[in-house]
Amino acid sequence: MTAVAAATLGLATPASAAILFQDFNGPDLDTMIKASKTNTQNDNVQVFGSTTNDGSSANVTFTGLLGDQATGTKIHITDGAGFASITDEDGAESLYNLIVDVDQDFTAYQFSIQLINDGTVSIYYMLAGGSGWTLATGSPIDQKANTNNQYLLSGGTFSAIMISSNSPIDFVKQNSITLAGSTPSVPEPATWGLMLLGFGGMGFALRRGRRRNATLMQIA
Known about the structure:
By secondary structure, this protein is an alpha+beta fold.
């Protein structure tokens, strides 16, 4: 907790437009984060998740913080539909910030969140090899109470993130991640553009080939 509290003192404004926090309604990312089956401590300031299919690691640390982003609050972790789900342990509406610290660097993080009151959701990120928090471009995003909104952070190589709200957080669930070195399942916009160009070229070639074949048959 000492390291976490120290890190939160250096919050910065957005540094890179390429790193983007946004609404996201696409497919889950490559790797589900599950509740750990090897470190099962629960109802504490810190609980543990796993990026392995069987939950056999404890390589994801979730830390619950109050609104001051420095003081811990107890959280509870369960597996819902295969994903780790984080809630306030005592229902005291004290969870405002959730730090997700992953042992392995990652390039994208997706989650859904529900707020108790109308509020905003922001993400701070810590770059791989870095030591301070930076507010992601796109933060904050308005969200209504009791709605289940889904978000994506992408565009960098990260070691940790902090999900932050000015409303108490009801839950954070459907956590999935793209680990560094793996192939992203969600194509970047530039990739989509190249794919569309490729499909267009294939269609043009097919149409041209059919016309040529029809002409040769007429000649024959």
